[in-house]
Amino acid sequence: MFLDFHTHDARKEAGVQNIYNVILNAEAMADETWKNREAVSVGIHPWYIDAARTEETLHYLEQVVGLEVVKCIGEAGLDKLRGPDLRVQEEVFIRQIRIAEAEGKPVVIHCVRAYPELMALKKALNPAVPMVIHGFSRKPELAAELVSGGFYLSFGKAIRDKPYVQQALQEIPAKRLFLETDGEAEIKEIYSRAAELRGITLAELQEIIRQNYSTIGLINK
Ligand SMILES: [Zn+2]
Q: Of the chain's two ends, which shows fewer C-beta atoms within 10 Å, N or C?
């Protein structure tokens, strides 16, 4: 089984289980067909924070967080290159972490150029729920720092051609690793590349990822 931790691609593929990301906006709140999927993550993406609707959207999130189909909260987080002022992003992010905490579900994190802020925030809040940074595409030194800060990292298409991301993937402890397409790659290709880089078999890699899904409560043991 190939487990795609994060995608925006609604297609279904044999042998693949994915967590489909629902960006909470007016449309997703009006058309709830996403509730019929197998597994979703639901949250307010920092790019799409709409100050006028934030309270309404958070309230909606509180109502759906307990659904069986909702596996994670997110993607949520901080982005210094896009979206509203970082203070606003932080507030919306913190509110979502608290909702995740109340339900005991992992948080899927979108982070761009705001890693110091993200690490400080986790230290201050010290959430008990797993925090998974999706689409990790930075250097091994940062990966190591994040791992010691307790984060999990999900790797995707950047492992195809970025040597420093490949090195980060090679060095991260197996128990902190997830893989994803973000809807922009084939999960089977990501798995074979990752297995090759780590010098293990595809079956061994699949077992590692399955274990990690189990560790953070996404599948039963
Ligand atoms: Zn995404």
A: C
